[in-house]
Amino acid sequence: MKRKILGIIALTVLCTLCFGLSAGISDDKVYINGFDAAYPPFTFIDKSGKPAGFDIDAIDWIAKEMGFNVKHQPTDWAAIVPSLKAKKIDLIASGMSITPERQEAVNFCEPYWEVKQLLVVKKDSPLSVEEALKPDRKIGLLRGSAESKWITENLLKKGYKFQLMQYDTTEMAIEEVANGRADAATVSNTALKEAVDKGLPVKSIGSYGQPDVDYGYAVRKEDSQLQDTLNEGLKRLKASSYWDELVKKWDMK
Predict the structure, then answer these.
(1) Do the first three CATH levels of 26-114+214-249 and 117-211 match, i.e. the same topology?
(2) Pairing between strand 163-167 and 138-142?
């Protein structure tokens, strides 16, 4: 009888230890990744209606490697940080710029990609950067983007008089330039490459002054365990051959 009791106690202790080790990230926990549905090659909805892109593949690999489940949920970009804080989503893996303003609201994992910010015009446009930013010009960009914040603080509030045209997706901003309804758009080098590859008649005329930015995955301030897990998963991913496969697959360079 004594031996039986000791066995039960030992089993209880073992179960407790196992639970304690797995309490941070549970195998049956489903984390929701909020993403921009129109920001290729990082995240978008493909022709079959499924989430696709560099970040989708990367997070799927990390989830499998680190032992958790992930669901990808299209989310309005202008509301994506509030959605994260309100616990409607659990992370943002979708080509998000790491900015001081965002760092006050959320925590970022280690940077995983650097992008250049460019001013894009129609392919046959003679405009220079200086001419594109003159009064009454129409400059398009993604609503709620880091570009929008930077341009407002560093150009419009310092005397520039161009008209800022905000769109729900980066693709829409570039398309408005291509069809002549906007004089220029501020986009990343990766977004420009994607547009040119699709045949849109646009080109870069150079930087408008915003420094290059790093992309990172965002989580809530209190979710340090998830942040650590994503960092470790990202570290393993970048050390694996699959990272190079993803870069090649999505033509990132």
Answers:
(1) yes
(2) parallel
In tens, the pLDDT along 123-162 reads: 999 999 999 999 999 999 999 999 999 999 999 999 999 9
- Give whole-number Cα distances, 151 to 61, 136, 193, 209, in Å: 35, 15, 22, 9
CA 13/CA 202 separation, integer angstroms:
65
| CB contact at 8 A, 43 and 53 | yes
Q: What is the dihedral of CA 224, 67, 29, 110, to 10 degrees?
A: 30
| Secondary structure element (H or E) that encloses residue 101, with its range | helix 100-105
In the chain, the amino acid numbered 125 is S
CB atoms within 10 A of CB 167: 20
pLDDT digits (tens, 9 = 90+) for 35-66: 999 999 999 999 999 999 999 999 999 999 99
Q: What is the pTM assigned to this prediction?
A: 0.86
* Domain regions of the chain by residue span: 26-114+214-249, 117-211
Please count the residues of the chain: 253
Q: Please, which residues bridge with residue 243 across strands?
A: none
Q: How would CATH label the architecture of 26-114+214-249?
A: 3-Layer(aba) Sandwich (3.40)
- CA-nearest of 38, 77, 33 to 56 is 33
d(CA 183, CA 172): 13
CATH topology of domain 117-211: D-Maltodextrin-Binding Protein; domain 2 (3.40.190)
